[in-house]
Design a protein that fits this description.
globular, Arc Repressor Mutant, subunit A, alpha+beta
């Protein structure tokens, strides 16, 4: 876990909102049409729709979040789903508490 990289990701309000929304996906996103659960996260298209930003911007945001290990991608056919990496988020919070 890289605290500096995570801080960079968290310096953007939309990326912070995405993490907040992914904490309770069933409350923040419509049900998936192709699968009946959120176990693997939320489809990129739903995240894009909620933000109102372009697909390329959301892809860039999710890529930076993935590089910081804050989200875990899962492929279902041609679609990628993202969920929070709770272990890394917990470790980050603990590191901040212990180091600052």
């Amino acid at each position: 876990m890289d605290i500096i990289e995570i801080n960079k990701v968290l310096s953007n309000k939309t990326r912070v909102n995405i993490l907040k929304w992914l904490k309770n996906p069933e409350l923040n996103f419509p049900p998936h049409q192709d699968i009946d659960h959120f176990n693997d996260g939320v489809c990129v298209g739903y995240i894009q729709d909620k933000t109102g930003l372009s697909q390329s911007t959301i892809s860039t945001y999710l890529n930076s979040m993935q590089n910081a290990d804050l989200v875990i991608p899962t492929r279902h056919g041609k679609w990628t789903y993202y969920k929070r990496n709770e272990d890394v988020i917990k470790a980050y919070i603990e590191a901040i508490q212990n180091e600052l």
